[in-house]
Design brief:
binds S-adenosylmethionine, single chain, 7 strands, Rossmann fold, 8 helices, alpha/beta, seven-stranded mixed sheet
Length: 222
């Protein structure tokens, strides 16, 4: 893994991935981030996953595994090979087009550009180092994977201009100190600005401290 970008990825050991769904998707999403996984995040994913899909920052593959009807041509991209193996196993080889170990801060291989109907970024942006402005590169690379009429969608935990509860503040503090998160300057407005650089039509909604987004109509020349 590339030094500097690996911090938000290297925590995902096989052991951490075993408890990820229980700790993050069930417990933390309900009690710290106040955004229910099944009713809010999975619904958002289901509404927006299209036929040829690229998931970036795959974790355990929960969303794709729970959206069996939308696509059987899925590409998995992640910096961490443990995440790729865990998600690939859960989703099943029959639905997977290919698996790519790649750092989203690095330009995409040409073979991935302009290929996808939908690209998802769930709980990736808050793991990436830098300010929201510095994460622009990740959004730029993700947008380049889309066909002209494709949709980018995702969700991220905000750290600025939001009201965290006690548990959320505690976890934010620990995770940001350890480099698991890097989101203390990530605000709803900053996310909107960054997405609007690459897309003409951006929707954002906030549930608890989580921003859910969609972005379509890529800005030409970007
Ligand atoms: C918090 S998990 C999200 C998992 C899943 N999308 C979800 O919402 O349940 C973040 C994932 O992003 C990956 N990741 C972190 N930094 C990355 C980078 N620079 N490039 C690609 N993937 C990265 C991690 O390895 C991990 O699998």
């Amino acid at each position: 893994m590339d030094m500097g970008n690996e911090k938000g990825a290297k925590i995902y050991s096989p052991l951490v991935l075993k408890i990820y769904d229980a700790w993050v998707l069930t417990f933390s999403n309900n009690y710290a981030w106040r955004c229910n996984t099944e009713h809010i995040l999975l619904n958002h994913f289901r509404r927006n996953m299209a036929a040829k899909h690229l998931d970036i920052g795959v974790g355990t593959g929960y969303y794709i595994a729970n959206t069996p009807e939308n696509s059987n041509a899925v590409t998995l991209m992640d910096l961490n090979p443990n995440s790729l193996a865990s998600a690939a196993k859960r989703i099943g080889p029959h639905r997977i087009h290919h698996v790519l170990q790649h750092d989203i801060f690095m330009p995409l291989p040409d073979s991935e550009k302009g290929q996808y109907d939908s690209v998802s970024l769930y709980y990736l942006l808050h793991c990436l180092r830098g300010t929201m402005d510095e994460k622009t590169r990740a959004i730029e690379h993700a947008s380049q994977a889309l066909k002209p009429d494709g949709i980018l969608h995702g969700a991220t935990i905000l750290g600025k201009d939001v009201e965290h509860n006690g548990l959320g503040r505690y976890l934010m503090n620990v995770y940001n100190k350890k480099g698991i998160f890097c989101n203390t300057s990530d605000s709803y407005e900053a996310l909107k600005v960054v997405l609007s650089r690459y897309f003409e039509h951006v929707t954002l909604q906030q549930h608890g401290v989580v921003a859910l987004f969609t972005a379509t109509n890529q800005v030409r020349g970007k």
